[in-house]
Amino acid sequence: MNISIITVGKLKEKYLKQGIDEYLKRLTAYAKVEIIEVPDEKAPEILSETEMEQVKQKEGERILAKIHPDAHVIALAIQGKMKTSEELADGIDKLGTYGKSKIAFVIGGSLGLSDGVMKRANESLSFSKMTFPHQLMRLVLVEQVYRAFRIIRGEPYHK
Questions:
Q1: Is 104 inside any structural domain?
Q2: pLDDT tens readout for residues 12-62
Q3: How many domains is the chain built from?
Q4: Which helix (H) or strand (E) covers residue 104, if one does?
Q5: Which of 42, 82, 88, 146 is the most exposed place for a label (fewest CB within 10 A)?
Q6: Pairing of strands 123-126, 2-8
Q7: What b/e sequence results for 96-120 when a residue is b if at least 16 CB atoms lie within 10 Å of its CB, and e otherwise?
Q8: Domain that includes residue 51, residue range
């Protein structure tokens, strides 16, 4: 299984990098996982609706350029479907069973994902109705992917 996590912006926080690196190391036993960072669009703090759409559009084009044509795309979005860890594991397992060996998880920037990225997505996933920093979502996502593979293999995991 080849998993890409395509995300907007650079990760600067050392503590988040350390946590992500730990889970990436653990994941090597289960899958090839890569994190692909695309540059965020520089913009002022206060934007009009049109300017927000332009920022999301530009970031979206960068994201779409990194998605493999054969990838099953899972967009992280507040309006996505909430799943349990077991449901996520089952979904990943089924994708592998039916020959989808490339999965791309997409995390947008602070304004979210463009319509183009959402249209390309095969499904959207929500971790909560709350808003989280996109940098923190990387760590949460990598941990949940690791947990999913432990569940798939029938290995113990913390409930």
A1: yes
A2: 999 999 999 999 999 999 999 999 999 999 888 889 999 999 999 999 999
A3: 1
A4: strand 102-107
A5: 42
A6: unpaired
A7: eeeeeebbbbbbbbbbbbbeebbeb
A8: 2-152
User: Which residues are known binding-site members for S-adenosyl-L-methionine?
Assistant: 76, 108, 127-132
Task: Give the distance from CA 82 to its chain's centroid.
Answer: 14
Q: Which DSSP category does 48 fall into?
A: -
Return the residue matching tokens 């653990």.
26
Per this entry, what is the length of the chain?
159
The pLDDT of residue 112: 92
Q: How far apart are CA 129 and CA 108, in angstroms?
A: 16
Residues linked to residue 38 through DSSP beta bridges, in sequence order: 8
* Distance from chain centroid for Cα 102: 13
| Domain-embedded: residue 158 | no
Does residue 159 lie within any of the structural domains? Answer: no
Residue 141 lies in a domain: yes
Tell me the binding residues: 76, 108, 127-132
CATH number of the CATH domain containing 117: 3.40.1280.10
